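Can you give me the bound-state structure? Components:
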Amino acid sequence: MNQLKEALDTLKDTGVRITPQRHAILEYLINSMSHPTADDIYKALEGKFPNMSVATVYNNLRVFREVGLVKELTYGDASARFDFVTSHHYHVICEKCGKIVDFHYPGLDEVEHLASHVTGFKVENHRMEIYGTCPDCESKEVH
Amino acid sequence: MNQLKEALDTLKDTGVRITPQRHAILEYLINSMSHPTADDIYKALEGKFPNMSVATVYNNLRVFREVGLVKELTYGDASARFDFVTSHHYHVICEKCGKIVDFHYPGLDEVEHLASHVTGFKVENHRMEIYGTCPDCESKEVH
DNA sequence: AAAATTAATTATAACAATTATAATCTAAGA
DNA sequence: TCTTAGATTATAATTGTTATAATTAATTTT
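Here's the bound-state model for the whole set.
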């Protein structure tokens, strides 16, 4: 249940030093429930770490990604978003306001299999995003 | 069958002027069968249009996207890729060499429905990418 | 067809996200 | 404690993309 503790253990196991900055970035990622950009994280931790550099955020997000704790997502917009890895889910994205909502759904294994069969690839994983309009934006719509 | 002609008709119908540069960009997109970046296109047409600006490539890719002729794709890597819109297909991407292969498969309507039901979104469309290792890279693998 | 208007292209500058570099600081091990 | 490796900071560099202004080309109006 305690995701932060598990994550810190993962870092320890892989020999990655646990610094206050890393602790805070992980904590933020886990608690935010949003899908923040590097800059979001940087700004959110400004109060706690006035001297922290953006490079630190990027560096550590890369470290977390390499250790498998975090997934990097790129949508159409300018900057990448980062998602703490939990159970398998997809993202539903509002095309009006950019909101991202998790959509829990089992992985599409049969699609992976077929793709592998047709293309000859050794398939490892896949990602999917679903686009539409969120209820908020939908209700604001003018008719 | 003649995709270029159809595409040009679409431009005419929507009142978009057909210039030599646009013609060439479209032609390249249709014939390349790869999924080029803006820079790829720019470089490929350098011989034909020595004075063409990168801005022209970007501008026209945006125009094509707005008219529905082209899809913009963003993966993990730095630059966006552009795909001439044909029938419904997904992309299988090699994590070693970056190669992108089309994988024709009917749309996952039932997933869209469920996502809509669960999240309350008005779902419009989705995208999926499948990641793995292509046969070439797989065979080069050291055991 | 010439003039006027609109749109497209070019060249260039600006911008924003990310990465690289070098210096400083921190922490762990000998 | 001294040494060494790793992490952070500050800053510069890079890269993909967009904005701006001037020029050129194409369409419409006269």
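A couple of observations. Strands of chain A lie at 70-73, 81-84, 89-94, 100-104, 122-133. Residues 3-84 of chain A form a domain with the Arc Repressor Mutant, subunit A fold (CATH 1.10.10.10).
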